[in-house]
Amino acid sequence: MINSSCHEYSSSEREVFTVWMKSLVISSNGCTVFNSKGDNVFRVDNYQTGVALKSCSWTTMVKCFSPSNERFDDGVGEWFKVKRECRIPGRGMITCHVTLGCNKTGNCSYKIVGLQGKQTVKITDRAGRVLAEVMQKQSQAGGVSLGDDVLSLMVEPQIDQSLIMALVIVYGMINHKL
């Protein structure tokens, strides 16, 4: 398990990942995440008890329990909590507020905003700065969509990629995509 105080998955440059909404494990729900070099960097497995984010070495990094439980655990303790805003009819937006529990100097806040029925999600910090964005992946030649099960995840520099992946998982769970 990775200690909540030392998640070390970040980069000095913007990273773009490909999220394939299929599991590499036969007869399993989940997804597989590849970096821009084509290396498998994360795996998400969906179990009856919850969803697990695993590293490229298949070590469980984070366990996300039922969305109604709103608890996300890295094995050491509660890492963050998610609270979904009430839906406003006709608005079509789904907004969730995230509070980190591992920051000893004070809680950080993040926001996950997505459009209902769309595969587009933005994760912002308290100041509204976009930290990560998920969108449907397009081919480089011609901009053709690669399908509903292939997404592009862009993560800004110096941002904890394991936290971003966990937040993407939460959004997927809330919207019944995982």
UniProtKB/TrEMBL annotation:
Residue intervals passing through the bilayer: none
Family to which the UniProt record says this protein belongs: Belongs to the LOR family.
Name of the molecule in the record: Protein LURP-one-related 2
Species of the source: Sesamum radiatum
